[in-house]
Every structure is written in structure tokens, then in C-alpha cells.
Sequence to fold (283 residues):
Amino acid sequence: MANQVVSHPARRQFALSGLALGAAAIASRGALAQQPNAAPAGPARASGPIVLHGVSPRLTVHALDTFHGAAATGLRIDFSRLEGGSYKLLRSTVMNANGRSDDPLLVGESYQAGDYELLLHVDDYFAGRKAVLPVPPFLTKLPVRIRVANVAERIHLPIQFGPWSYTYSRGS
Amino acid sequence: MTGISTHVLDITNGRPLAGLQVELYDMATHPPTRLNNTRTNADGRTDAPVLAAKDARTGHFELRFHVGDRFKAADGLSDVVPVRFSIFDAAQHYHVPMLCAPWFFSMYRGS
Fold:
């Protein structure tokens, strides 16, 4: 129960074929080098929606880049837990082709009540995508701090961000 | 006008979030230095700018909104919401509003 499979086999297969599309999209991104500030002509779509309804308690994240209209593939997130007054790094993870971490941030035994921080390396992410922004950019290392209060309920955390704004909420 | 200002709106009732503790920190020091500690007024703004025009400068700053004290939701998503941002041009004004609910937070550079 703790590590219940999230997706149906058919959906998983679809997601895998989506990875190949994602790789192709990354390869073609070189064409954007001539126009550094240009958003892609069409949003990258690595896969269809992923349904988490009914899975065991866990913390999952989904990062979306609203500047490019795409999953924030390649975004680094440092995930920490508040212990003794400071945030201690649990792991550093990079968003996959779907804008998610490959594994839940917390699941099963690791899903404990407490205060957590996701530190999004937004500056490195947009620099990597050749976005032309002021130096330093408005958003650099973006902390999102959340509290897990009830470990009987899972928390899905969608984060939408651009160079000048961000939104996070409890999702499903 | 230059400096930093904010505006907090509660989207659960479509009204300003009054009486919210807001702090401003200078993130360039270790540990961060608190520059201001204030509260929002009835309009969800602070009576005086969070960072006054005379103190405007480039640098790395963080607003901290103590939403947990106001929302008092047992399962609220965040307690203290940090909004970390950089000022790259001290001649510009930085309005940094937040729209929020116990399970939703949205921040942006406003005007």
C-alpha cells in the first residue's frame, strides 16, 4: 500500500513514449539559440496528465514554467526539513520530462509531519533556457515552505513560476 | 517612488488581509538582517512602505508573511511564507503583492 503504483500500465507506456518526444523537443531547442528570448512556438508536452487519486499518503511536486508554457524539465529543487531551527537538506532532485520528481519527495515511512522547504533554482533554470533577464534576476533561489500536518492525507504541490511571479497551492 | 511595498489579499473572501505580520529581511548578510517588522492595515497594505524610498538599493531581500497566525487552519499549507527576490535597479519601485488562501499562495512583481 505504501508504494502503490501510480499509473496504469497503458498510461505508463504513454508516458515513456512521451519521454522520447521530450528528448526530441530538447534536441530541437538548439534552433532557439539565435533568438535567446523567444519562447518555444508550442509548449513542450512530454505526456498527458498523471492522476494521483487514491494513492497512498505522500508528498509530490509538479513544477510548471509559465514563461515557456511547459513542464519545468531540468529545474533543480533542494528539498529540506526544518530541524532545530534550520532547514536540513534531505535530497536534491531535478524535474523530469513531465516537470515532476521521478519519485515522491516523501512517501511511506518518510512521509512525516513537519515543516519542509523546496528551494527552486529558478535562476539557473532560466539561464539554462537562455531567457534574457536582469542581473540579478527578480527571482533567484525561490523557497517554498510548506507544512505537513496530517500524514493520513497526501499532499500534491503544483508550483507555477515565471521570471516575475509564482504560485503554489495544494493540488490533487 | 522607489523602495518596496506590498499588498495582501485573501482570495477566500475577496478582501484585504488586515493585521498580517510582514517582515523584510536583507538576505545578503548571514544570518539575514531584519530591516522591518510591520503589519498590514485595513486595506491589506502597510501604512509606510516596507522599504522606504530613501533606503532603496540593489540587493537580495525577503518578505515574510506570517499567514499561519491569521488563517489558523489546522491543515494550512504554509505557516510563514517567504518571498525572496532581488532588486537589480534601485531607481525602480518594487511592489510585491500576495494573493492567498490557507492552501494557495501567489506572488508577483506588481506596479
